[in-house]
């Protein structure tokens, strides 16, 4: 059987490679550096893997981190600011997990090699990609490095953003007492953005983390633009003050004398523009290349769905490849179009949910959250739906679907939730284009 080439050893590339190997398909992964070098690198992200992705990890036999000291069962959602701040805390049906990718990706690369996959350290640009296409039955691009994303044009009708909708800061922390049982807090701050607190499994055990999603130009965005390394103490004082003002449920567990970023490599700052690209390209040789994961669809991390969408698209693409090989079909344009459609179907709910969170919520969504603050059954349902895009999109599609969702979990008549004005939420910046609607 002819070998498949995957360029990039991120989560989507590794999940695709492992899935193909499980079907007996020979695979070579090409990567810029030895994956083991990631263990000493800068923090890559603070990524959540939710129940569907964890199920895929169990299928692949790479669920190495599960257990009572890792599984996240609770989500708190706090609307801080406006005339009627409120909070809810719900239990998810199936736990999520946060694993430091400096551990996750090298371990999966080791699994890949141990199971017979080939891994070659080779920087791949467009010229090298052309050469690889002549040596393999199919080339899949799972990285945007070295200009490879230029192969896959932006799809305007699916890409509402033309500039970064959020300024980002992520870090592993010290001096913050972690919640027990393990949970995540999402702080939604009118006029500022979002602050997410979670707990990440690292080489040294579970540690607290924070992800700041700041509206451009807001006070919160200073955490993305002020350089940490110029004055770490001043930066940590700023971060602590932002938690005090905008994330009080997190700040109440801060030890001011010991609070800060864990180490000089344990933080990230930056921004990027989310985009959906065409999922395939014809090369100069006449052969085709496919895109998977972030190379195909790049989502903002506000919904915690990036890696989950990448894993889902990898599994969808693996099914297309295995079927085509079994039927002895060529990897031609028709195959590429079918594969793109399958990958997009697997990724679209996460993209729509992410784009929805990047715009002000309509009144019925505020009513849903307020109902969760009054009834634990509704809160549990919201928490489970929050990490499952298909569920939350259905619940928030329109006022009628939201009312039905609330009634399903709170059948008895209850005291109405306090009125919350949607106008108190942050308006989108003037330069930000219209985002995908919750009703899409």
UniProtKB/TrEMBL annotation:
Record keyword Oxidoreductase present: yes
Chain residue ranges for the region called Disordered: 418-440
UniProt superkingdom: Bacteria
GO MF assignments: monooxygenase activity
Record SUPFAM superfamilies: FAD/NAD(P)-binding domain
Keywords associated with the record: Monooxygenase, Oxidoreductase
Entry-linked InterPro entries: FAD/NAD-bd_sf, StyA_sbd
Domain Styrene monooxygenase StyA putative substrate binding: 144-253
Pfam families: Smoa_sbd
Entry protein name: Putative monooxygenase
Source organism: Pseudomyxococcus hansupus
């Amino acid at each position: 059987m002819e070998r498949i080439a995957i360029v990039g050893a991120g989560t989507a590339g590794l999940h695709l490679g492992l899935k193909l190997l499980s079907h007996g398909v020979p695979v070579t992964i090409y990567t810029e550096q030895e994956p083991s070098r990631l263990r000493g690198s800068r923090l890559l992200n603070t990524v959540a893997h939710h129940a569907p992705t964890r199920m895929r990890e169990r299928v692949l036999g790479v669920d190495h981190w599960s257990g009572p000291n890792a599984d996240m069962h609770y989500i708190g959602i706090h609307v801080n600011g406006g005339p009627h701040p409120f909070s809810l805390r719900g239990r998810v049906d199936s736990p999520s997990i946060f694993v430091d990718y400096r551990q996750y990706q090298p371990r999966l690369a080791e699994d890949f090699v141990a199971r017979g996959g080939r891994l070659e350290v080779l920087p791949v640009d467009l010229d090298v990609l052309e050469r690889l296409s002549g040596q393999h039955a199919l080339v899949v691009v799972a990285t945007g490095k070295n200009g490879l994303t230029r192969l896959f044009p932006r799809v305007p009708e699916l890409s509402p953003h033309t500039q970064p909708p959020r300024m980002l800061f992520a870090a592993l922390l010290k001096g913050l007492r972690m919640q027990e049982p393990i949970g995540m807090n999402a702080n939604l701050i009118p006029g500022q953005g979002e602050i997410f607190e979670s707990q990440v499994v690292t080489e040294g055990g579970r540690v607290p983390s924070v992800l700041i999603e700041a509206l451009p130009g807001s006070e919160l965005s200073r955490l993305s633009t002020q350089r940490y390394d110029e004055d770490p103490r001043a930066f940590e004082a700023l971060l602590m003050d932002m938690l005090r003002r905008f994330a009080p449920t997190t700040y109440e567990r801060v030890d001011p004398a010991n609070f800060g970023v864990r180490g000089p490599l344990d933080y990230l700052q930056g921004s990027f523009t989310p985009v959906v690209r065409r999922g395939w390209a014809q090369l100069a040789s006449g052969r085709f290349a496919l895109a998977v994961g972030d190379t195909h669809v790049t989502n903002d991390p506000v919904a915690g769905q990036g890696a989950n969408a990448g894993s889902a698209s990898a599994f969808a693409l693996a099914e297309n490849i295995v079927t085509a090989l079994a039927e002895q079909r060529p990897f031609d344009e028709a195959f590429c179009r079918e594969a793109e459609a399958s990958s997009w179907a697997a990724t679209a709910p996460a993209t729509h949910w992410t784009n929805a969170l990047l715009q002000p919520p309509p009144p019925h969504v505020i009513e849903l959250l307020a109902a969760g603050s009054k009834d634990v059954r509704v809160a549990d349902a919201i928490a489970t739906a929050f990490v499952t895009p298909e569920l939350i999109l259905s619940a928030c599609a329109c006022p009628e679907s939201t009312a039905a969702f609330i009634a399903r979990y709170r059948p008895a008549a209850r005291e109405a939730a306090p009125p919350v004005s949607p106008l108190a939420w942050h308006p989108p910046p003037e330069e930000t284009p219209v985002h995908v609607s919750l009703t899409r």
